[in-house]
Amino acid sequence: MNFWEFLGSRHQQLLTDAYQHASAVFQCMVVATLLGVLIGTVTYRSEWAGNLATLTTSTILTIPSLAMIGLLIPVVGLGVPPTVTALTLYGLLPIVRNAIVGLRGVDPALVDAAKGIGMSRAARLLRVELPLAWPPILTGVRVSTQMLMGIAAIAAYASGPGLGNEIFRGIASLGSRNALNQVLSGTLGIIVLALLFDAAYVLLGRLTIPRGIRA
User: Per the database record, which ranges form the ABC transmembrane type-1 domain (predicted)?
Assistant: First the structure.
């Protein structure tokens, strides 16, 4: 059975795995983005706090994904919980770092002007600083998503959802006639999903970033 015949015979399962893979990454990115921006807004005003946040999230990223999932299994069990926890933690670093850099890069004159017209600190953050810091934050989200697309494949080790199941099944049956097809279909599926997500982020940037800021 060649690769195209394999895709035709397994397309339903592959579509299901692709949907689960994309859903897991998307949901984890939403959580990681909210947490990352929150951490960034809390720590960007202080040099040591910002450095601590960046150091902590970068340390998490140095833990091998198999080791991370292996450590989480005794705590949260198999399946979705270790997948969601690991992906959320791995997605934090680029978002936290870019949120801090973006917020620190806002022109102080604009913040002073907002303060001068009576805006509260929360209003200045929400209406002036975060919108101006959004381009680097979005870049961090894009980088995190690309990382998590690949890392999510390891979730199959803990009976997690996604295209990693095809890859692991293929590796486990090396020597059989469809082993390579399984690995290839899972790998190409992840690449296609990563490209689709990135295209969606480009569109989101065009819709949410004013042309003057993009320029």
Answer: 18-201
CA dist., res. 24 & res. 148, Å (int): 9
As a whole number of angstroms, the distance between CA 64 and CA 157 comes to 13
Residues 6+ apart with CB under 8 A from 76: 82, 85
Helix, strand, coil % over all residues of the chain, rounded to 5: 85, 0, 15
Residue tagged 């399946």 (tokens): 79
Nearest-angstrom CA–CA distance, 198 and 13: 24
pLDDT in tens, 107-124: 888 888 888 888 888 888
Angle formed by the axes of helices 179-208 and 3-43, nearest 10°: 40
- Is 0.85 surpassed by the pTM of this model? yes
Q: How far apart are CA 88 and CA 95, in angstroms?
A: 11
End-to-end CA distance of the chain: 51
